[in-house]
Amino acid sequence: MNDLKNIVVKEIKVDSVLTKSNLPIAGYSINPYIGCPFGCRYCYAAFMKRFTGHKEDWGMFLDVKYWNKIKNPQKYKGQTMIVGSVTDGYNYFEGKYKRTRAFLEEMQGSEINLILTSKSALAVRAIDLIKTYPNPLVSWSINTLNENFKNDMDNAISIKRRIEAMKKIHNAGIRTTCFISPIFPGITDVFSIIEEIKDFCDYIWLENLNLRGTFKSDIINYINKKYPELKELYTNIYTKKDMSYWEELDKKVSEYSDKNGFMYVIDKEPFLKNPTDKPIIINYFYHEKIRQSSKNK
Ligand code: SF4
To answer: Which of 5, 21, 188, 262 has its Cα between 20 and 30 A from that of 204?
Structure first.
């Protein structure tokens, strides 16, 4: 883990913490911080650096936002708001600055649909507050049970602690998601993760690793060095754009779901009503492709 003392932390003033979102799952995204001390190597949010003028490496800076009071929170009733689309609202500094807590306190009583996404256990401390929202959802990203691989990829807390946090939040009556993302071909064992978490979550979202932007070469170099036996597979998927790995995995998940009584759907809205007592598995492997083809129409 990075030494937290080396992370450059700045408190900044912004007009608003609410951003209209183009994510399919939420109308607004809320990022109480800029940057993320978890510094995942595959983080899609690392592009933020370009827009905020930060020179530090991704993961090594954090701007703590203070915003103007949200006017009339009740007017957002029924809107879905996701906390943590380009930061982790429960990163290591939330304990000190409590900006995610500040947002949740401000919006209390507004009856928004609240989604919190995290790789932390800090949401456990906010259970009472989260429970004041109607039907909230807390999601954890878990793409391995191997702590060594996890440590190679991010500076967040251990997988074991994430699962413990999921269990506590679930037991407190709050809906939970295990976001198996990004799935690393040949490394992420989707089925052993499902077996580990299936009793503590309502949804399992599956998302494949997309390699683009600045982190593509870093990940490919890492695979070549640490997993040379996967070199050909990664070339097929990420250079030759061969989808057969994902199609095969999709088939296996479908068979697994049939056998174990899970509802399994592809690219559906993330909060489908669940008629079963088991989590719904939602596959987003083809999300990028579907988005791309609808753009080209
Ligand atoms: S926890 Fe999320 S926002 Fe933070 S670095 Fe990782 S992927 Fe990016």
So the answer is: 21
